[in-house]
Amino acid sequence: MSSIKLINIAKQINAKLHGDGDIIITNIAPIYSANNKQITFLSDNRYINYIANCNAAAIVLKEKNLYACKIAALVVENPYIAYAYIAQMFNNTPLPAEYIHPSAQISYDAKIGNNVSIGANSIIETGVIINNDVIIGAGCFIGKNTQIGKETRLWANVSVYHNIEIGQQCIIQSNTVIGADGFGYANDNGNWIKIPQLGRVIIGNKVKIGANTTIDRGALDNTIIGNGVIIDNQCQIAHNVIIGDNTAIAGGVIMAGSVRIGKSCMIGGASVINGHIDICDEVIITGMGMVIKSINKPGVYSSGVPLQLNKDWRKTATLILNINLINKRLKTVERKLNNQNQKKQ
């Protein structure tokens, strides 16, 4: 268990210290359950009433909320970002692997850098290049001629197909598949003819990919994931998709082929994006969004009908199904009113 003086935490996150800097902090916890050895944080004013009964050793908060605090405090501009950095200080997640396990099968011509760890039963095929300080968990498959940049980590059972390029300092969670064939078929009089997927997947630096996500290889050109992109669990990224730097994609998102997404976008969970469309930089799509055409202006976009009582939803559905009839009737009424007004004039 880590033990860090409060003053040292303050220095590392550039916070203003209020109270005893010699307090020893052993962990971080929520505001409603933290004990006197833990530090907590307040980033949402909806939880400000918890401060009065908070048992934490210290709290991270904004200057405007310091008045309510009776314990040691670290004052910062953004408590949530401070929380992220503090959580890293107390991170006790074990490494995916700690050495090259004897059962790992590594091709004779694979190039393995310094301080590389490869877990049990992993397979490294011919022509693979694994750079310094890479960690590959148990049961992973790294296909022919794939390159993995330094300090990247793959958790157990990740499959990386052939000719894939993964950048530096990436994290890929378990059971993710990178470089599988895209959904490419031609219909010949009812028979589906498979189109070989000849492109690659190129992943930039500092990309984070969640568990059970699939990123398909390109059909001819490459599927490209930019630097700093974060992708949640169980997402489907189809062939020839291009995702710009620092875009965030929440869980369960499905992208059809040849989508182009700009930089610094945020795609809400369970959203579906149609193929062959472009989304510009700095677009936010809220959860369960259905994107069927290109977006060329930054902003927040939403779709779908929020949850209702079933009896209310039935009424809403009836209105939607009859929207064309309602529209025709409205136009008829408008024409009659316009005619009456013209006669009066």
UniProtKB/TrEMBL annotation:
A single BP term in Gene Ontology: lipid A biosynthetic process
Pathway the protein takes part in: Glycolipid biosynthesis; lipid IV(A) biosynthesis; lipid IV(A) from (3R)-3-hydroxytetradecanoyl-[acyl-carrier-protein] and UDP-N-acetyl-alpha-D-glucosamine: step 3/6
UniProt keyword Repeat present: yes
Cellular component, GO annotation: membrane
Record keywords: Acyltransferase, Lipid A biosynthesis, Lipid biosynthesis, Lipid metabolism, Repeat, Transferase
Catalytic activity: UDP-3-O-[(3R)-3-hydroxytetradecanoyl]-alpha-D-glucosamine + (3R)-hydroxytetradecanoyl-[ACP] = UDP-2-N,3-O-bis[(3R)-3-hydroxytetradecanoyl]-alpha-D-glucosamine + holo-[ACP] + H(+); a UDP-3-O-[(3R)-3-hydroxyacyl]-alpha-D-glucosamine + a (3R)-hydroxyacyl-[ACP] = a UDP-2-N,3-O-bis[(3R)-3-hydroxyacyl]-alpha-D-glucosamine + holo-[ACP] + H(+)
Residues covered by the UDP-3-O-[3-hydroxymyristoyl] glucosamine N-acyltransferase non-repeat region domain: 22-88
Molecular function in Gene Ontology: N-acyltransferase activity; UDP-3-O-[(3R)-3-hydroxyacyl]-glucosamine N-acyltransferase activity
Active site (UniProt): H239 (proton acceptor)
Enzyme Commission number(s) of this protein: 2.3.1.191
Major enzyme class: transferase
Function statement: Catalyzes the N-acylation of UDP-3-O-(hydroxytetradecanoyl)glucosamine using 3-hydroxytetradecanoyl-ACP as the acyl donor. Is involved in the biosynthesis of lipid A, a phosphorylated glycolipid that anchors the lipopolysaccharide to the outer membrane of the cell.
PANTHER family assigned to the protein according to its UniProt record, in alphabetical order: UDP-3-O-ACYLGLUCOSAMINE N-ACYLTRANSFERASE, UDP-3-O-ACYLGLUCOSAMINE N-ACYLTRANSFERASE 1, MITOCHONDRIAL-RELATED
Alphabetized NCBIfam families for the sequence: lipid_A_lpxD, PRK00892.1
Binding partners and assembly: Homotrimer.
Family statement drawn from the similarity comment of this UniProt entry: Belongs to the transferase hexapeptide repeat family. LpxD subfamily.
Name of the protein in question: UDP-3-O-(3-hydroxymyristoyl)glucosamine N-acyltransferase
